[in-house]
Amino acid sequence: MSRILRLALLLADTPAPSIVSKQGDYRVQFTRFLQSSIQKYKLDVRLKIDPYDVVNEMALPTEEGLKDIDGIMITGSAASAYSDVPWINNLTDFMKHVINNHPRVRIVGICFGHQIVARAMGGNVIKNPLGMELAVTEFELTEDAKQFFKTNRNGIKIQEMHQDYVSEIPPNFVNLGSTSMCSVQGLLKPSHVLTVQGHPEFTAAVVKGILKARGEIGVFSPEVVEKYSARAELEHDGIWLGKTFIEFILDGEVKADDETEDATCHM
């Protein structure tokens, strides 16, 4: 019988209408992302995803609800994790509570979610003076990351779309990697919390859509849109990371049929 993965998906943003109309909102995108990992790696897992609008409704799992889930996944957001606004403060306090008091519940943070975890646990998040990191980027793995991922590879390729970054690692966490623009590309608290700065759930179409939308309002120049739209099409390790998230949340209860070092995919 398939293992049911019971996941609370904390929706920290709604994509632009042009993205939603073609690629779906974050609930759709994350479901498709995780399902693609299940299919590619032949995981005997069925998804049960409960979405929570943490922005407009400030909805979060209850104490009773935390007993009925395997993990929490926090999405990306156009907002800044260091902002002093009610919904971000509420989310930060909730994540601090869960991490400190519910060690059974696995946490996965993506981009903004990665930064929220860092803020909640005593790290620091700032705006990067070097600018934005965009499209498929390879980050160099730390020795801790190589041990966690069980790989001899030196780097992982991931879609990026951020300017804020974690400038100080919280206590009891280790850094998973770095690039020349961003020194903390992921965080790990073994057997409990896993985060990445990039967007493994993003397809090339999503990244190109964001670049196009921001280009139309003058955030990106035509040259930037063209350059990074091409880079968005490069192969990356998103689906492999999705498999890693599922195995992490389920604490090794399921294993992929195909454990290869060649993890890159085209989305």
TrEMBL record:
Residues 25-204 form the Glutamine amidotransferase domain. GO terms for cellular component: cytosol; nucleus. This is 2056_t:CDS:1.
